[in-house]
Amino acid sequence: MASRVLLVIDLLNDFMDPRGSLYCGDETRRIIPQIRLLIDEFTASGDHVIYLRDAHATNDKEFELFPPHAVKGSWGSEIIPELAPFDQHLVVDKTRFSGFFGNNLADLLRDFSPREVWVTGVLTSICVMDTTGDLRNRDYSVVIAVDAVADMDPAAHRFALDRMKKVYGAKLVKARPESELTSEHGEFTKGRGNEAMGEIHS
What we know:
Elements lengths: L3 E6 L3 H4 L15 H13 L3 E7 L35 E5 L10 H8 L3 E7 L1 H14 L4 E9 L3 H13 L4 E4 L12 E4 L7 E4 L1
Parallel strand pairs: 1-2, 1-4, 2-3, 4-5, 5-6
Antiparallel strand pairs: 6-8, 7-8
């Protein structure tokens, strides 16, 4: 049984590469090193890493809301090379904002029975928040690495973090080493064991 699971949400070419059809902006790329750090840590400790990947049909109804993006089998739906999964990692396709929609994520987590589920990726106010809500609806303890999630809209990012903490009871932490911690979100306490490197208190 894994003690933790790391979710890496939508770190795809169409969102994270400037050539992508729905590029989220240069600022969002700053989370890539933190996610790499967490992937390496979880892999080394024997915990599970699950990539959640948008993989839409060409006529997906979501394209009535957003420009076409992350079409299944396309370059845009591929995980960015900086975070390419290892053989032991899992890649789960999704077609809606929640990572649980239309796939076997619920079954995987039920089998793994993790003590905590860590959430990273884009966008904080859409897929990250909707997936976190569905995790909490299934009674999983959720940890949000605030320097490993990003949004195109800074106000929406801050609102989503605040809502996930206050409404869902998610723990907000930093992925970076303690010596590098600086945050607009408050003070930090040092984590213990496999806990957060820095926990945020407001």
